[in-house]
Amino acid sequence: MSDNKKRELQVAALENGTAIDHIPPEQLFKVAHLIGLSAMHNRITFGNNLKSKKMGRKGMIKIADKFFEEDEINRIALVAPNVVLNIIRDYEVVEKKFVRLPDKLIDIVKCNNPKCITNNEPMKTHFYVIDEDSGAIKCRYCERKINKEDIVIK
Questions:
Q1: Model's pTM, two decimal places?
Q2: Residues 6 or more apart from 62 whose CB is under 8 A from it?
Q3: Cα gap 45→57, rounded to integer Å
Q4: 3-6: long-range contacts at Cβ-Cβ below 8 A with a sequence spacing of 24 or more?
Q5: DSSP at 99
Q6: Which residues pair with 128 in a beta bridge?
Q7: Cβ partners under 8 Å of residue 137, min gap 6
Q8: How far apart are CA 73 and CA 96, in angstroms?
Q9: pLDDT tens for residues 80-98?
């Protein structure tokens, strides 16, 4: 095989499941924690600081036989809003989902206002994304604005 046709498989192939790709390397373990990987019994492959034409360096998580629900994807979007979810069946990517922050976050984030009704009554939190680029959100109930670095995920 010629040098320019040579390919190096840095992370093992996945028969069925999801590959979370283009994770910023510094966010890889936050993503792993948010989606509860430590409690899963699936085969999981991690790669960090992998070469990326798009990002320079990236992280990747491959999870066998796992397909994410919308609320799990929204959790990922809070810390790594531009990742790509590759849905894999029979070793082929059958769907690519580009993760973006949704317009609303329901029962995912804790309000950091101690006087907010959501911290004093048994009810779901509800936030609006007010700036997708910066990750700023606003509580529906107390209208407190929370910057990305101050977000506490439930």
A1: 0.78
A2: 11, 12, 14, 17, 18, 19, 20, 44, 45
A3: 17
A4: none
A5: -
A6: 104, 138
A7: 105, 109, 127, 128, 129, 130, 145, 146, 151
A8: 13
A9: 888 999 999 999 999 999 9
